[in-house]
Write a structure and sequence with these properties.
Elements lengths: L1 H11 L3 H4 L6 H8 L9 H11 L12 H7 L4 H15 L3 H33 L5 E6 L2 E6 L8 E5 L7 E13 L1 H4 L5 E2 L17 E2 L4 E13 L5 H4 L13 H30 L4 H15 L4 H18 L2 E3 L3 H6 L4 E4 L11 E7 L2 E5 L10 E3 L2 E3 L5 H12 L4 E5 L2 E5 L2 H11 L5 H7 L2 E8 L4 E8 L2 E8 L1 H7 E6 L2 E4 L2 H16 L2 E11 L10 E10 L6 H10 L3 E5 L4 H10 L10 E3 L11 H9 L2 E3 L3 H13 L4 E5 L5 H6 L2 E5 L5 H6 L2 E3 L4 H41 L8 H20 L22 H27 L5 H19 L19 H19 L1 H7 L5 H36 L3
Parallel strand pairs: 9-23, 9-26, 19-22, 23-25, 24-25, 26-27, 27-28
Antiparallel strand pairs: 1-2, 1-3, 3-7, 4-5, 4-6, 4-7, 8-28, 10-11, 10-22, 11-12, 12-13, 14-15, 16-17, 17-18, 18-21, 19-20, 21-22
Length: 917
């Protein structure tokens, strides 16, 4: 309603232009807001417009309310099963049992509610960590501001990869295309221009408009904001924003399937026990109590709670270490990652480009930096020179500054660059010679821009120069050289023949071998802006930039190798440059193929067997296009690998989606890339990917541990009741006691396992098979063995209480109850990794484990000595001898478990010793 009132107010004020801005010229739209394209809005205008139109937000996605979370607790199969047990108890007038089960449902609901509430709110806070921004002209400067602060009249600067944050009327465009599929369903990017279109033009055909929620896929431009928030096309179909459906992750599906299997197994056991009991002539009431006990024993009440907390805590840990997870399913997949295809620039390197060499026909010039990054020297033949002393050098610096979309801003800390680091490096190099882009474009106004194209590998700008145009071009050396017909020399422009091209190519190769990022600069004069900028160019020279490896990346690559993960460099840079950086960071191994050029990367079906093997062994792929990235992912996936792929550009989005784990850059990545990815690196560092993989492995292992722990405890309870029923003996443990244990010795230790920090050696293990279930056949065998050990110790203590200590049934039941409780508590130490030491492992180091043991011990003692609790549970003081029996018998499963682990370790060492190295 608020948005509609705003819209009505706008129309009532006669604001017809904003109702159909596509039908008016860009000059009329700018005039309407009283804004100039170069300066943008003043602060007082911004305040006035924000007051009129409000913040640039759609309706807030409704948070999951506390009531919804509370109701979710009653949708569980576990709660339904317990509710049936409570109803049956009420029906047979077992008031204490019924009341106790109802109390357990209440306690379980309260625990589940607060745990899920915490997890949900944590997830919501994670989503708020990444804020969309936009670049705008404000008070004569380009500023980056939160998208919600945009107002109508703002001048937005656009580049390929930007997500459009408001409805925009284009004013200037260069090869601009947009993906409007989210709004119109049109799958092909739409070309855009700045000319007016008819008033009755449909949304899909408004080619001078960009709409909120769409994406710029190519080119660049500037536009004026004409609609924000609910006054946008997307706002009119705001149902798109209400898409708060919760995706069910593979892990959640597996846990749900596990719960359903347990339910059917429980029902089968109940039926068998009931049939045997009735056949032996037992009372119906006793059989109902036994059935309730079995049902309660079989169900792991803590499973859904602990799973939610484990995932949420893991994601928060990742966020603290600069890895934001976009999709919950990625947490599980991360642990199985076996190949990481990573970009070079900014991920393996610092992405802090500095121009260090410029090679011209007149000589090789070294560029230095002194203190302030815009102050430095130019050294030629060991002598310092001025840019004005070499006309070709001056041309090179000017072309680098003209063919550029970056800008420099002076701050107290020095010079801050806004835009692409490569372009910023060219501006800084020019600034060292006193050349500023602002002054250049005043003398040579920019009339047209041909945006950088990853296929063409070049960029061009047209600048008015008297009655003609100066065309400035920069790009990959091989692409620029192919487009040049002349080269600039001290004697003037000369024809560039094949021999000349080979000389320049050799220079390019030598610079690349030194680890430099190399660009070629060229120019030409043109009569109009309609000509092809990439024909008949004059080569000016080559620029070499250094981008040093990131600190710690060599160690991260070594950690990758230890973890059984292949690190593969996939870059658009030259093979020689890529190889140089790879050598510095230790990426290349002896048995690996060195470098494969993008021209040799094809779809897996088009490769011979030798080519396939060569590609799978390769550690560097250079000059790779976005399409070839898809082929590379496909190749590794067909080989059975779980592939993580990094990317930052709009062209990387398909590869990020195709990869098992798409990893986008948070600092230099486009918004399109970030939205397509499963994970966003806030610091763009390769080492952060490994931190996330480690956390993914830890989370999966933690979930596996607590599922193993919960099920082995519950299996022991089922076995105890089942075996006692089969031999017609009294129940060693009562239904209420089982419920109490499931809330005490199940939930708290399982929670402690779920939030553990994991095994420090986890990254020295091979990645797990992505198809491997939570519990393998080996784990199911362990569950049965552990369950039997606990069962035997409890039944033996129950028998010894009768025979050896001559106790009555109540005391004997107390002994078996306490034996079971403490056996389950000590059993948590059996959850350590097989190869870890008995006193030095991830379980012993987990402070939450010790807290859970202390809490559970206190609650168990209270269950015996607090009158109300002991009466409800049917427990009495076991006495000194009883406690000795409890402690000794409860330690048997833990001691036996440690012996089994020691035998297993020795067996594995023997097998490894026999295997060929």
């Amino acid at each position: 309603m608020h948005a509609e009132n705003q819209h009505e107010t706008m129309m009532e004020a006669g604001d017809e232009l904003l109702a159909k801005p596509w039908a008016y010229s860009s000059e009329e739209v700018l005039s309407h807001f009283g804004v100039s394209l170069d300066k943008g809005l003043e602060q007082h205008q911004v305040r006035k417009l924000r007051k009129r139109y409000g913040a640039n937000r759609l309706r807030k996605i409704e948070r999951k309310s506390s009531w919804q979370i509370l109701l979710n607790q009653f949708k569980s199969l576990i709660v339904i099963l317990l509710s049936v047990a409570a109803v049956l108890s009420f029906a047979f007038k077992e008031w204490v049992d019924a009341g106790a089960i109802a109390a357990v449902i209440f306690i379980n609901t309260v625990i589940g509610f607060f745990m899920e509430l915490k997890a949900t709110r944590s997830m919501e806070s994670l989503r708020r960590l990444e804020q969309v921004t936009a670049r705008v002209h404000r008070q004569g400067r380009i500023r980056e501001i939160p998208a919600q602060n945009i107002v109508p009249g703002d001048i937005i600067v656009l580049e390929g990869g930007d997500i459009v944050s408001a409805d925009l009327r284009l004013v200037q465009t260069s090869k601009l295309q947009a993906d409007e599929s989210v709004l119109t369903g049109e799958s092909v990017p739409v070309s855009k221009h700045a000319e007016p279109v008819a008033q009755d033009t449909l949304v899909a055909d408004r080619t001078n408009m960009l709409f909120k929620g769409t994406a710029v896929t190519r080119g660049s431009g500037e536009a004026v904001v004409v609609g924000t928030g609910m006054n946008t096309e997307l706002g009119q179909i705001s149902a798109l924003v209400e898409q708060a459906e919760e995706a069910v992750t593979p892990l959640e599906k597996r846990l749900d399937q596990l719960g359903r299997k347990l339910l059917w197994v429980t029902l089968l056991i109940i039926a068998v026990v009931a049939a045997v009991g009735i056949a032996r002539g037992k009372e119906v009431m006793i059989m109902i109590e036994t059935a309730i006990a079995l049902a309660v024993a079989a169900v792991p009440e803590g499973l859904p709670i602990v799973a939610t907390i484990a995932l949420a805590r893991g994601m928060i840990r990742m966020a603290r270490q600069n890895a934001l997870i976009n999709h919950l399913a990625a947490v599980e997949t991360l642990g199985g990652t076996s190949v990481i295809c990573t970009d070079k620039t900014g991920t393996l390197t610092e992405n802090k480009m500095t121009v260090t060499r410029i090679i011209l026909d007149t000589g090789d010039i070294t560029v230095t930096t002194e203190g302030n990054q815009t102050v430095g020297k130019f050294i030629k033949d060991e002598n310092r020179i001025k840019a004005s002393e070499d006309e070709i050098f001056l041309d090179a610096l000017e072309i680098g500054a003209l063919c550029n979309n970056a800008s420099l801003k002076t701050t107290q800390q020095g010079v801050e660059a806004i835009g692409d680091p490569l372009e910023a490096a060219l501006l800084i190099a020019a600034a060292k010679a006193g050349i500023k882009r602002d002054n250049l474009v005043k003398r040579l106004p920019e009339e047209r821009e041909e945006a950088f194209d990853s296929e063409v590998k070049m960029m061009a700008t047209f600048h008015k120069n008297n009655r003609r145009y100066r065309v400035a071009v920069k790009g990959a050396p091989e692409a620029v050289l192919a487009a040049c017909s002349q080269s600039r020399t001290a004697q003037g422009d000369k024809k560039l023949d094949e021999k000349g091209r080979n000389i320049w190519n050799d220079l390019n190769t030598r610079m690349a071998e030194q680890g430099l990022r190399v660009l070629a600069l060229a120019e030409k004069a043109a009569d109009t802006t309609d000509v092809n900028p990439y024909e008949d160019l004059t080569l000016i020279g080559l620029v070499g930039m250094v981008d040093p490896p990131r600190q710690g990346v060599r160690e991260a690559v070594g950690l990758c190798r230890d973890a059984g993960i292949r690190a593969v460099m996939v870059t658009g840079d030259q093979p020689k440059t890529a190889y140089s950086i790879a050598s510095q960071i230790g990426l290349i191994e002896k048995d690996q193929e060195r470098v494969i050029a993008g021209t040799d990367v094809r779809a897996p079906g088009e490769l011979s067997e030798d080519e396939r093997e060569r590609s799978l062994r390769a550690s560097i792929f250079a000059r790779v296009s976005p399409k070839q990235k898809l082929d590379l992912i496909d190749l590794h996936q067909q080989a059975g690998s779980v592939v993580a792929m990094t990317g930052d550009g709009v062209n990387d989005a398909p590869a990020l989606k195709k990869a098992d784990i798409g990893v986008a850059m948070g600092q230099r990545g486009t918004q399109v890339a970030r939205e397509a990815a499963d994970m966003v690196l806030k610091d763009d560092a390769f080492s952060t990917i490994l931190v996330a993989v480690e956390q993914g492995r830890i989370i999966f292992n933690n979930i596996r541990k607590f599922v193993l722990y919960l099920l082995s405890c519950n299996v022991s309870e089922v076995m105890i009741v089942f075996m006692a029923s089969l031999v017609n003996a009294p129940l060693p443990i009562l239904p209420l006691q089982i419920l109490f244990l499931n809330l005490v010795t199940d939930v708290f230790p399982a929670l402690a396992l779920g939030v553990g920090e994991g095994d420090p050696a986890i990254m020295r293990q091979k990645p797990r098979d992505p198809k491997e279930p939570i519990l393998t056949s080996r784990h199911w065998l362990a569950i049965i063995v552990y369950g039997l050990l606990i069962t035997v110790s409890v039944l033996c203590s129950f028998a010894l209480a009768f025979i050896l200590l001559a106790m009555d049934s109540t005391q004997a039941v107390t002994i078996s109850f306490l034996t079971l409780a403490f056996a389950q508590l000590w059993h948590i130490f059996n959850m350590r990794q097989t190869r870890s030491r008995f006193l030095r492992n991830e379980i012993v180091r987990n402070r939450f484990i010790w807290g859970a043991i202390a809490l559970c011990t206190a609650l168990l003692i209270a269950s015996v000595y607090v009158p109300v609790l002991s009466t409800v549970l049917g427990l009495i003081n076991p006495g000194f001898k009883g406690w000795i029996l409890v402690i000794l018998m409860s330690l048997i499963p833990c001691v036996a478990g440690q012996i089994f682990k020691a035998i297993n370790e020795e067996t594995k060492k023997t097998e490894e010793g026999r295997s060929p190295s």
